[in-house]
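--- STAGE predict ---
source: upstream dedup step, 1 unique chain passed
mode: sequence only
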Amino acid sequence: MAVGEGLTGVLLPIAGVDIGVAQAGIKRVGRTDLVVFRLADGARTAGVFTTNAFCAAPVQVAKAHLQSQPPQLWLINTGNANAGTGARGLKDANDSCQELGRLTDLPSESVLPFSTGVIGEYLPMDRLLAGLPNALDDLKADNWQAAARGIMTTDTRPKGLSCEIELDGERIRITGIAKGSGMIKPNMATMLSFVATDAKVAPALLDSLLRDAVNASFNRITVDSDTSTNDACMLVATGQAAVSEIDSPQHPSYDAFRDALIDVMRGLAHEIVRDGEGATKFIEIAVEQAASTDEALAVAYTIAHSPLVKTALTASDANWGRILAAVGRSGLADLDVDKVDIWLDDIQIVAQGERAADYTEAAGSAVMRQEELTIRVVLNRGPVADRVWTTDLSYEYIRINAEYRT
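--- STAGE serialize ---
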């Protein structure tokens, strides 16, 4: 079950990035569950990771290795999160890096590990390590689509997006993949996302560009308000396109590159919401005329996380009082409720804190029956606007998570 047709189109290869996939049988036999990215010498990498205090062993190792030396290999497994696994989990993450390093004659510190799947179970290291040679034998530039499938867990479809833009009279590419369907309320990135470009970007700027793009995309989505133990988002710039290095926000190509990067990552973030576990609706929640970004997001997320709002959306029930109540309990100091306006798409449901005079249940219900809609809240207390994207809460979400380990 997912909303819309999903992302379509060719995933463009990125010069300096080769990808291999393999079936290691980590959780079940017969599915691709191991992915290796090999990055060319000179590639520059930035990453952001979960802020969950119970961050998984691979997150801890990847963060340490990223500070140690330029990464040349990314190793991703699905079916097992290697989280909540203590000292053995850390050893397993390090051992997987050492073995991949040995097979490629590279230092183990140049390997960044990533895992996703069930929390609290040890990695089946014999199967994982045995799958590495097959993944390396499969390395090729046009394996992005296979990688997008290989990193899936409860996802119903792969998530990948590419764009090509002109900088300095030359074409540069950005391609990204992501996975995530449940346990989605990122507080840095998404469950897992890997983005690459052949543009040249200065290392310090690459990090700030990634954080800007994450804040405009993955940090603006929620399915169920749960932040994973394993979230990671990586960006690599291989520098192999024939363009000048983007070294500051004043560079002539900076704005165009930043906008393209945000477009790709926002497209991936939206696809995570569209493929949210049990999702039947894709909802944008836009908050306008707030006093600050924090205020706008407090209101938006309170609505997005309300079980009463989300179940009403599943039922296509225009029970707008639930939205009004969520705004009121969002924690805004001195909120003047008599100034609040609320809309469902172009139908005003609340004007100055009460039911809009021309609102009809039929009009509200018609909007609520749509697969995609916008809840717009105008606070009339400042100049700031922001938005988040979310899903409804259906019977299917409950079934998927009730049966996740069975």
